[in-house]
Amino acid sequence: MKFKKAQGLSLNVIVLAALALIVLVVLVVVFTGRTAIFASGVSKEGNAQLISLKVTYGSCHPSSASEASFRTSYDAATSDDSKELASETLREEISRCKEFSDKDACESRDCKWG
Q: Residue 112: phi, psi to the nearest 5?
């Protein structure tokens, strides 16, 4: 009876494959962390822009939903033009709400008093 030698992976190949897998996992962790840092930086820019627009608020101002919509649009903007469009949309909403001088009229038009 003849015995055949089985083919197998050498120990060197197994060790190299394990090291390569570890390196890939480390790279994924590093880039995922950097993506989160980038996303938080973009979000901070939108919040800063919102705060600068809030300075122009009067007694009647846009609702929280309008502000959240602005932040979403601003954060998703890929160009300066689209950021300016998001800002202009909120400015128009601020102007619309400023037209109302009493609480009932303000709140009945989807604005917030206070």
A: -125, 135
